[in-house]
## 1
Amino acid sequence: MNVVLLGAPGAGKGTQAEKMIEAWGLPHISTGDILRKAVADGTPLGVQAKTYMDAGELVPDLVVIGLVKSRLEEPDAEKGFILDGFPRTGEQAEALDRELASLGRTIDAAISIDVDRDVIVKRLTSRRTCRSCGKIYSLLADPPADPAVCDVCGGELYQRDDDTEATVRNRLAVYDRSTAPLVDYYRSKGVLHVLDGDRPVDEVFADVRRIVEG
Ligand code: AMP
């Protein structure tokens, strides 16, 4: 199963991807995670990407397309994959189709998770991530006992640089401008599924399961 997760930042793509990995063991390809790791490691890619990311702008298409192409050619992606945060522009969607065609494959489902904007701003500005184990918390919906310490491993919890309110608003504007049109792109290919993401995680996942398992 080759799946694309669409939806504004904070819609819950990463959370649903985690549940999909648990259920089906598909590789999770998150361009945001790959880029954040490059920034943390201080690689040339990270240095190039950081300015865009901190401003909530998109990293140039050529850079991200190259990353995803090489990731899709790794052996574990042969059994299927979950793309999270890619494609984000028409250019990226077309490059993805070309790459998949060269591998004799297509996208089976594009799942768009819809959430009200005010809910997203609240969700993202209250999001905290553990520096050690990567667990994601919500200070509102799923608060740790101590807002600065991970319940699981005792690691330090931090707020992503791009989860401040001003940057979140810019990321949403970028989404509307560049990424929202992809909903129509996948609808025209007959693979689009739109889900209401303003519901408990397990309810959303029940719908995802129906789509993936048919
Ligand atoms: P995310 O974790 O998916 O919200 O991504 C965080 C940031 O990484 C975005 O705001 C962009 O700056 C960058 N990024 C992630 N995926 C892409 C992509 N497909 N195209 C361009 N920039 C991206």
## 2
Amino acid sequence: MALIVQKFGGTSVGSVERIEQVAEKVRKFREKGDDIVVVVSAMSGETNRLIDLARQISEQPVARELDVMVSTGEQVTIALLAMALIKRGVPAVSYTGNQVRILTDSAFTKARILHIDAQKIQGDLKAGRVVVVAGFQGVDEQGNITTLGRGGSDTTGVALAAALKADECQIYTDVDGVYTTDPRVVAKAQRLDKITFEEMLEMASLGSKVLQIRAVEFAGKYSVPLRVLHSFQEGPGTLITLDEEESMEQPIISGIAFNRDEAKLTIRGVPDTPGVAFKILGPISAANVEVDMIVQNVAHDNTTDFTFTVHRNDYNNALSVLQGIASEMGAREVIGDTNIAKVSIVGVGMRSHAGVASRMFEALAKENINIQMISTSEIKVSVVIEEKYLELAVRALHTAFELDAPAGKGE
Ligand code: ASP
Ligand code: MG
């Protein structure tokens, strides 16, 4: 008999009919003899609706009160689901974060979980009940209601699975798993049976927004096996695990991630002296701008060109910081470009294979796509290219790394 935590997102509980469907699904699992803890989000759109109400009162609502309010969305769905289970003859009980005692810090709207009392839930499970827990919320030391940040129900699910030492945390959503890349860009993208936490983090942070990144981090840290599944279609989904299988069939690259949210800035012809990088990036970080990729190159005349990327939203801010320091540093000019995109190949298989980056560059060269920047890590190679070539690049790489679904599949 296994203990499974199942998390259902907003679209999966978006109407009474859907909640009944979820209850039916849970009932079937129960019949097989597994212990089930269910975590649910608010009905889709509800959290936004509530936030909108608050905004009608105040542009910047007091965070504590915002949490008192938005936590109600999940309080509705836990009760409805428990009712639907009981109606089916499945003993069930619903709990808010406070009732479980999901203890968090007091950082309203972005609280972190400190501790979960497992006892009460374990008692209910022993008594044969399905426990339905409100996602996204907790309570601080003083008894204030807190929330975990948007998409936080994923984190609740994983944290509960860790606290209860569950066999698996299943995240039910509106896609049937994690894909090799965005199927809207590559029709031949395939669902992955397995992916490692590390890979998933790279894929998620690069735009494959299936799971809240924090939940993946949490699952990796506590070794909670995580599975992404479709709420209403049968299928194995994608298992996210720690182990890297050393099998012959294991592809070198697990997926192609991409991101259109970055912009590039260059400060050119800066006299190359120790401390240049700090003089440039110090003021950038002081302006609260996060830097992603960095390239520095020294010319034969002992000046350096320093290029980096930032989130597009921070572009204007970063540009004015650079313009402010350029003359003082003796730089020739400052230039920027927002028409860029980042494409990354991700895979733990890279660790044991040479020539992965060159294969990537070859595939891009064949399509005549110019690479503007490159960065690498142990399991990732990223390039910056002109935005208009993004989709072409992703498709070319998907084919070059043999990720395309066989004909007839994945279309
Ligand atoms: N209801 C919350 C949100 O919309 C939490 C969640 O859905 O995970 O962000
Ligand atoms: Mg979600």
## 3
Amino acid sequence: MNKLFSIFIMLFCSISLFGKETLIVGTNAEFPPFEYMEKNKIVGFDIDLINKIGEIIGKDIKISNLSFDGLLPALQAKKIDLVVAGMTVTEERKKFVDFSKDYFIATQVLILPENSTISNLNDFETNKLGTILGYTGDLLASKNKNIQKIQYNTPAMAIMDLKSGKIQGIILDSAPALGYVKNTKGLKILDINEEQEKYAIALRKGNEKLVEEINSAIDEIIKTGYYDQLVKKYFN
Ligand code: GLN
């Protein structure tokens, strides 16, 4: 009994000493407006969203910036607790991780030079397409083995090569693509009518309680209008 009591006291002390539980959130700050660097700080839609979720569920949030294709391995290796990275829910990813409810709908589009006559993905059988390693757009382009793909680590690097004419197009998620086209002269978007994609937060399998907490926090964020505020802040 005494032993139990001292364990209880120790636990109580450590909780009050160390405060709230911290969730380590992995992202890849190369995907504006969802996550990007601003004056050496990681900011964006996803960052505000997860900080609000942390506030609602009473947990501290610490952001860790990793490469996009390193995010799910880091989650499985318990180096991070969550992934918030504009990540699309796919059947393949679901084999390895669980997802929260979705919080954003996107599609894949092509970024092309303004004067380009390219009209669909298959035109890249005779042109060079920039893809970003591990992104859903990269996987989509891989379905046609005849497409000539050049893989980049970040969208910004692909945009540079598109401008210099090394590649003739880039496949990318719609929201970041729109941002790049807005901020770069001489580019346009081509909608290729691909299926909708849903972004959600990825968690290690077997964290049902945390999934539930996050899902109800997302509901609250939508209900209270905070979600609309974020849309206004990042999509104008
Ligand atoms: N939505 C895309 C994917 O999940 C790209 C996400 C990202 O680059 N952050 O692959």
## 4
Amino acid sequence: MKKLYFLLLISAFSLTVFAQSDENMGIIPVPASIKKNSGQFVLDKTVVLVSAEATNAKNADLLNAFIVSKGGFALRTEKALTKGQKAIVLTAVGADDLPAEGYSINISTNEIKVVGKDAGLFYAIQSLMQLMPEKKNDKITIQAATIKDYPRFGYRGLHLDVARHFYTSSFVKKYIDRMAAYKLNTFHWHLTDDQGWRIEIKKYPKLTTIGASRNGTIVGNYPGTGGTDEVPYKGHYTQEEIKEVVAYAASKYITVVPEIEMPGHASAAIAAYPELSCFPERDTWVGENAPWSGTRKGKQVQQTWGVFDDVFVPSENTFKFLEGVLDEVITLFPSKYIHIGGDECPKAYWKESAFCQQLIKELNLKDEHGLQSYFIQRMEKYLNAKGKSIIGWDEILEGGLAPNATVMSWRGVDGGIEAAKLNHDVIMTPGSMGLYFDHKSSASPDEPLTISGLQSGFSNYTKVYNYDPVPSVLPAEQKKFVRGVQGNVWTEYIESAEKVEYMILPKMLALSEIAWGQLDRKNLTNFTEERLPLHLAKLDGAGTNYWVPTPIGQAAGILNGKEHTISLKTPVAGAKIYYTLDNYRPTETGALYTAPFKVNVPEGKKKILKTVVITPTGKRSVVLETVLNNGATDVKTK
Ligand code: ACM
């Protein structure tokens, strides 16, 4: 018990040291400006929480609940400040002069004054909470400072695919909690795909009685060799659950943008209602190159990944169906935007279908791309008439962009550039820049099963951090069409909620920094060495899984020379670095890194430094190897 107490003290101490030395006081995303002042505000039970406006009451309660959790005491609340009283003052007075979603915090020895309203005040409180130490204490000391803050982008998104794998609404709420803590404001909920339809639609019950279940799931990487597991898999959200999630998100200033995929990725809907296919009688094609390649009887919810030819037929019946679906979707989601997918729609069935070919002629379209454009434009018109706007993946540029559409650029940045040049709004989500969070963080064999990634397909937090969503090639007047940035979380290979967390963290924190933080405040070293270790330590203690970064200061690969100085820093406050130089995998039985040391390598030899980071709750990094080479002949230099 004593030992545990000591360990807790040590980790609380190391968190404090990190925060106090940091010019940004540990805040993620980095504030637009922060200036430390002399002195400290000591928060104890004598402090009064002053909140005059009714609109601020919810945010005042949020702060007070947090103080109860950290200090074990609640603050007395007042409507007005008594002169001389030590107080935290929340006020909307002056908030109208701030940029959208902006706030200011002024911490002096006698007062913390927070100016903001609605989302701005909520974000101020997120920052303030980050300034409070982790350990429970009846006196919470906060460094005096002046903070002024507002976001770079109005759209700060994180996506979740719940079709390939399904996650409970309680996990979705936890996901939303994390987003809100880091000032992300848009949750893109990918609700339908080939492998499952996950939203109850009352007019079309078979979408969930049939479309939400599949008979198995591919084992290993696509196309794989292991077949499917033949274990039935199902899940969907009732409309009540959806409403609850949407309201929960709204309470944290997060808009939920639903995605209903069309015209491709429609296998689950077609399994439920085969008449939505060009060829209702045709058996389901289950994929190229797979050992089981070929067809399965009837229309099936897909069990393997990839892209499938059986897409929505652009018939009046299909449009009526989709309008019926969207009518219910728009009553559930107050979001201005509805995402209609539009990606990866093969044209093979449309080419083969006499109906589609006749339609192309009748509509005087050029080809099947024209037909896709017609499809999207019709849906846009329908939604625009209901006061909604569409977002689509960048394929909606092909064959002619719908007049008011926002484009989500995922196949690199070119789609975003093209759309911005057409004066259309753009959200940047390029996989090539690290924004596909389902891609693995490193090449280590210790990484779990993921979508197989080439080097360019890696996604780690430094790559995300280094990305600037505004393409430099855009002329100044078109840069403004880049409304924001988003991380995407496709879940073919993410079977559990814990693995979702492993894949998105700490990338999500880097995303928050590029989505919210001003460009001139970007500083990867400060982020990695000062602030991230603190946040990862907090997540460690909060029951959240994450990818543990490898030691700061260790380069992967080969270092040439006779004498090497090994100087490392822990990437998680309170975590330990263990290493070996004897070719064994490091664990707690390795040497504990405590201070820089020298390694001498004899002429013609090499030594391999292998490290592992182990956090206070036992999470581990991948093992990182550095070859210390002094002319060994078996070392390949690249
Ligand atoms: C996508 O990754 N198919 C948008």
